[in-house]
Amino acid sequence: MHGQQLVNPKLLTGSWSAQWIQYPGEDKDPRGYGVYHFRKTVDLARLPESYIIHVSADNRYRLFINGTWIGEGPARGDLHHWQFGSFDLRPYLKTGKNVLAAEVWNMGVYAPVAQISNETAFLVCGDNSACKDFNTNTGWKVLMDSAYKPTALDAGAVLHSYFVTGPGDEVAGKYYPWGWELPQYNDADWGAAASLGTPVAPEGYGTDNKWTLTPRAIPQMEHQKEPPGKIRRVAGMDAAQLSEAFSAGKPIDIPAHKKVQLLIDQRYETIGYPELKVSGGKGATLRVTYSEALLDRNGQKGNRDQIKGKSAKGLYDIYLPDGSDSRIYRPLWVRTFRYAAINIETEDQPLEIESFNNVFTAYPFKRTAAFTSNDTTLTRIWEVGWRTARLCAGETYFDCPYYEQLQYEADTRIQALITLYNTEDDRLVRKAIQDFFTSVTPEGLTEGRYPSNRFQIIPPFSLWWVTMLHDYWMLRPDRKFIKGYLSAAARVLDWFENRVDSATGMLGPLNWWNFVDWNPAFPNGVPSGATTGQSSVITLQYVLALQQAAELFADFGQQAQSSHYRALADRLASATYNTCFDRSRNEMADNGARTAFSQHAGIMGILTDAVPKRDQRSVMEKILQDAKLSQATFYYRFYLTRAMIKAGMGEDYYESLTPWRDMLKIGLTTFAEKPEPTRSDCHGWSASPAYDFLATICGITPAAPGFEKVEIAPKLGALKEVRGSVPSPKGIISVALKRTGQSGIEASLFLPKDLKGIFVWAGKTYPLNGGKQELLIH
Question: Residues of 13-51 as b/e, b for ≥16 C-beta within 10 angstroms?
Fold first, then answer.
């Protein structure tokens, strides 16, 4: 598939000559479930140098030109920012007959929660008058596909979990219009499409603007066919025979009147469009169930590599072959799985399974960062962290690819840092910042996740959005981009300021869902004091956001606002310390009554300097030593690491990787949402080693906004040798570090030409300039 992002801004300010179109049937709900095929045939006497079109649909489309699949979309957003993709058809056009075709579908009430919709519709508009032959209007033909119906509607109930990524597909092959996208297909019996009017009318008059169009901000997704998995279990036929054939890439023959079950292990968790290619099998039923991990009788996962006594449960598709040769069945939307269980029941005709392969689909990140060390076990964590990040990044960031595919600020902040440290592509980060900005509610908070068709507010997550702005400001030199969000950041901070209790000097009772971490001691993730007032964790997170906002606003010349934020942060930090810090325990309590204690409170106390700097190391030591403290899970250990570094204990990071090592020991190939038992086996916020190996172990961090300067302060722990590289706006920063003696180091460093900075080791700093430099410190 070859998609291109080609935007003509002039088109956005004028009228679109094309029309939104849809299936005209009165028997069909335009907002209901449905799959439709659109076609337009155009004869071209000559070929232009370029032929650019802009395409969108509600909910989704796949686009074909002369039978070649060239793109999909639209990238997820909301009705006020509905994205259109742009494609140059010239490489696929020929003189004479050309067919542009699109498969468009709407999941209706079954749609993923991340999918917003108005009603089913499709749009193509040429970039200019020379490219208008394919403009959508009533000259297009359309067919409602009766082969599809939704299935697996009980996946959440079966898994006893929050599951909102949409239904499975049941596809009856005998009703599917095979070859509908090809030029030679006969569409004589298709009907004409109905018009919904133009997207933008001249002078602002005309039809209602059901979708406010905006150019697609990100590239097309990567599509890469993966090698087949391995058959691990067979029921109903000879296992050795089928496994051998499948491993060799040969077809598998299933006799008539047979019930067979195949368990395929992809060997690692993946995401994409699994394609099942079959011949024959008329009347057969194939059910493909996708699982991150197999479950035992008690619903437990255990070691992910072990299959004995376990089964696959969750989302599934059902395919009903029509008996023809080489039919390819694939789902409308992506599936996430390590294991695929295929249950087959044939009738009178034998079935041949020609292949089962996944087409990996995710945001097309190219990793330019690198990391190696003398501890080769870290290589596995480095690789698995990146795979976790890849599976959690599509048209938006996903908290998890199997259960939700929703973009939450808490997850996204960490995922964005991983992106900015590992790649040179910041487009998905920018889109995420913009997505949350567009979700800001009248009272001033962002929604807790967005895009989302279900309203949800998580106040602490709005604070992480402010932190995301600070992160981007430090790591990328685009001040204009950040400046546009300062007023919204101020509204978020104002919401919390309006809830400061003057009697206590801390945040009072907070409404909405004040999630902090999936800690067993936090009911539904909410720490003590959040709903009643005097939550130290959330008050101090607010302090952290205020401190970061003060830096941002000062850099943009808003000194009065900056000073206000600094003063407010100081007052809140002081009040929280005086109220919640228990000197006899040397620990920060979660609430003013000091009846609950967690690592989280101490972490935030250190990060904000609410805990005096002179005491931070001893408090950090207590946080790490006191097993009675409510513990940070994988997500909040990201902030535990930040606090360790601030307290002068960054050297302990290497030893703190035990939870990630333990996940690998039980067969996880991505990092899980939380400690066992866990719901999600792949969660973006748990991929933090993909950031920390570079920012903490290698110690590469920006020392000025826009990465104008760099600080390299390695924290090797017990490691003897480390190599790493990080892309920066000025170029690649590389380090090669080797311990010498008890406290010395050999450092070979390379900085881009125009980048300066410092190297920090054993409390001393050494100046760095662009180019290669060697340091030998005893």
Answer: eebbbbbbbbbeeeeeebeebbbbbbbbbeeeeeeeeeb
